[in-house]
Amino acid sequence: MNILFFDTSSRMLTAGAIFDGRLVSRSFDAGKSGHTALLMPTLDEILRECGAKPADFGAVGAVVGPGSFTGIRIGAATATAISFATGAKRVAVTAFEPIAYSRGAVNVAIDAGRGNVYAARCEDGEVKETFFLTAEEYAEAVAKGEKFRCAPVGDAAETLAAIFAAKVGKGEFVPVFEPFYMRKPQAERNAK
Q: Rg of the chain over CA atoms, in angstroms?
């Protein structure tokens, strides 16, 4: 099955397609708010390189978080629109999975701003437990010798492609792209 996928949950924009068994991908720093302007042109470029159109893909995948609230919403909305327009099945991946991929038992940390982190305990790429650490808690954990991985091993697009392909192969589809925030948005936290 051909798969179109992307990750807009961090500053890095990673997008790709597995088309006729070949991976075509792009990964670059989109800046703090570049996903809105860059995601669709990047997907268009990938489709042109594949010689494909959106309807040629049986599955669309998105990283649903945790990470940038706006980035997660952009990715989920875009993937949902593509799925509605083409009938493609939906595949969701957390931002923890690419970092944990091929690492056995590992702690994963993702930037949550201001030194804080979203963290997870993972085994064989599967998330077992998630938790939020303040900057102070994270520093204490590291000082006590806890090790956290913060980036995937190897190329991000290749890792994502492998994860999405495995989920498609197992039939792990979702009915909706549900954002995985782990915390309320800053505006909601400030309102209290």
A: 17
CB of 119 within 8 A of CB of 140?
no
- Give the count of beta carbons closer than 10 Å to the beta carbon of residue 173: 15
Q: Domain ranges in the chain? A: 3-191
Q: How far apart are CA 51 and CA 44, in angstroms?
A: 10
**End-to-end C-alpha distance for the chain, whole angstroms:** 47
Q: Class of 3-191 per CATH? A: alpha beta
> Per-residue pLDDT tens for 39-97?
999 999 999 999 999 999 999 999 999 999 999 999 999 999 999 999 999 999 999 99
Q: Residues 71, 10: contact at Cβ < 8 Å? A: yes
Burial 92-106 (b: 16+ CB within 10 A, else e): bbbbbbbbbbebeeb
Measured distance CA(102)–CA(123) in Å, rounded? 9
| Interatomic CA distance for residues 118 and 67, integer angstroms | 8
Alpha carbon distance 129, 119 (integer Å): 8
Q: Which of 121, 130, 114 is nearest to 65 (CA)?
A: 130
What is the pLDDT at residue 54?
Answer: 97
Pairing of strands 59-63, 3-7: parallel
